[in-house]
Amino acid sequence: MRTRLTSLLIFCLFGDPTGGPAWQKTAPVVLIVYYSESGHTRELAGAVAIGAGSVKGVEVILRSVSEVDSSEVRSAAAVIVGTPVFNAAVSPQVQAFVNSWPFDGTMKNKIGAAFTTGGGISAGEELVQVGILHSMLVFGMVVVGGEDWTSAFGASGVTNEGPFHKGPIDKVFREKGQALGKRVAELVLRFWAGNPQ
Which domains can be identified in the chain, with CATH numbers? Predict the structure, then answer.
């Protein structure tokens, strides 16, 4: 009874972060949207989805920016956005996706997070993550980073420098992606249950 009252109070004060009444949903949705040119960001997106999917009680939707539907964005409890680094900025495709979000309060109080891939160890990954998080804050979203200080702004992967030359995303970056997805999904459930502690 106390949990229901707390949930009702949160909905009254902050609105429903999923864009619709909770009683009409079977599970909160974690939407992961990405753009990938070489396949690296798609691979990291898959790791984020694995992490989110490891949390029981959430539905995970993984889409490229060309596949995602605006209704999925509106109904999601969390949106995790991924992009390769384009000259220390998000890709034009991801920027267009973010620019398409409704400015009618729909995005307010949704949980948001970011992940990125870059060719070099210091090629702008953090700048891109913070850029995505800044945009989310403009929409009133609640933004989160990774599970500890080594991924404070989200998950990232290096694809073409030092020991990380070519090939698949290194295991350490896949693990950071999984941890980010898991953290977001766990927080979604806490907010959904009315217990963000």
Answer: 2-19+26-192 (3.40.50.360)
